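#struct-pred

JT: dropping the chains for the assembly here, can someone run the whole complex?
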Amino acid sequence: MVTINGGRLLDDLRALRAMGAAGMGGTGVVRPAFSEMDMTARRWLAGRYEEAGLTAQIDGVGNVLGRSPNPGPALLIGSHSDTQPTGGWLDGALGVVYGLEVVRALAEDPATAHLAVDAVSWQDEESRFYGCMGSRSFCGEFPATVEADLKDKDGVALADALEQAGLADTPRLAAGDRDYLGFLEAHIEQGPHLEQDGRRIGIVESIVGLGGMVFEFSGQQNHAGTTMMAGRKDASAALYALANGINEEFPKVAGARSVWTMGRVVLSPGAPSIVPGRAELELQFRDVDPAILDKFEAVAHGLVEQINSRGGATVAAKPSRVRISPAHMDPGFQQHLSQAAELHAPGHWAAMPSGAFHDAGVVCGVMPCAMLFIPSIGGISHDFAEDSHDEDIVLGCEVLASGAASILRAAGGAAT
Ligand code: HGY
Ligand code: MN
Ligand code: MN
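RK: done, full complex below.
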C-alpha cells in the first residue's frame, strides 16, 4: 500500500485552482488552453515536477512532461490542466496533480523509489482549438495539414497562440520518446452515478466516442411585421425545425447511454423585429458504439435534405470537430486499479463507462491505458459549481498510487 501526502495534494490542487479562479463559490476556474493563466499554470507545474526530482519540459504544443530519472519501462500518469470556458477546479487538474503526488509518494518510500513514473499535463483537451490536441500530438495524430488552419471560435489562429506562448519552433513530445508501460488518468466522474450509488471510486471500462456537426442556415432577413408567414425565408424557423427533428428522430436510433447536445445557437442579426436571415446550430453527440454515432450523422443529413426541399431558408451541414472514437481501457490495468480500490475502499467502488471523453481515449491508441474516477458532488461539471469532497480526492490518489506501484512491480520493477 503506498502512502500519499493528502495535505500536500490538496494544497497543490488549491494552488492550481487559484490560477484562473472565477465565480463566487471558490470552485470555478477559467483557464482555457494557451490563455495567460493556462501558461502560468503550466510553468508552475513544470517547477513542481523539477522539485519532485523529474526533468520538466513544456513541449511545442504546450504539453508539460516531468520525466523520471529512474531506468526501465515507465508509467505515464496525468491528465489536462486547461479548462472549459466555464470550468471547474477539478476537471483535468485532479489527474494532473495526482500524477505529481504519485511521483512524490513513490520516491519517498524506499520500497518504491526505484519505480519510473513520468507525469504529464496534456494541452487543449477541452477543444479550444482541437479536441485533445496535446495527447493527439504525442500520439502522432496531429498532422501539419490539420494544424495549419486551426482557429478557435473567436478566430484566433493556433499559430498566433503558440507564438504568443513562446512555443513556436519548440520540440514536441512523442510516445516513442520513452519505453512506456502505459498511461493512467484519474478524473472526476462529471456525472451522478458514483454519488447516487454510494460508491467512492469508479474504474473505467470504456470511454464514449463523440461526433459533432455545425449547421449554417441561409434565408432572407426582413421586417418581422410586414413579411407574411407564407414565403418567408426565416433562418430561425429552419433551425428550430432541424432541432425538433433531431430530438424526435435521434431516440429511434439511440443506445442506452447515447447523449446529444445542441449547446450553441446563433441567430443573425438577433433582433426581435427582424426575421433572421442567417443562423447557426452546433450539435454534439456521444455513444460507446461508433455505429450509433454514424447513425446520428445520417439522420441529421436526412433532416437537412427535408428542410432544403421545403423552399424556405436552406441549411448546409459540416463536421464541427474531429471525431473521437470510443475507447476501451486495458483489462490488466483495470485489474490492478480494482485491487487497489478494494484495498483502500472495500466494497465502495465499481467498474463503469465514461460519458465524458478523456485524453486516455486518445493515448490508448498507442499504449495500454486505464482511468479511475472519484465522485462529483451533485454530478455537476463544466460549471463553476463543480466540486468533490476532500476525503474522496485523497482516497482517489491513494488508490491510483497503489495501482500504479502494482502495475510497475508486475512489469518487473520489483523492489531492489
Ligand atoms: O466534454 C468532455 O467530455 C470533456 O470533459 N472535455
Ligand atoms: Mn472537461
Ligand atoms: Mn476533463
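JT: nice. The longest strand covers residues 209-218. Residues 209-319 form a domain with the Alpha-Beta Plaits fold (CATH 3.30.70.360).
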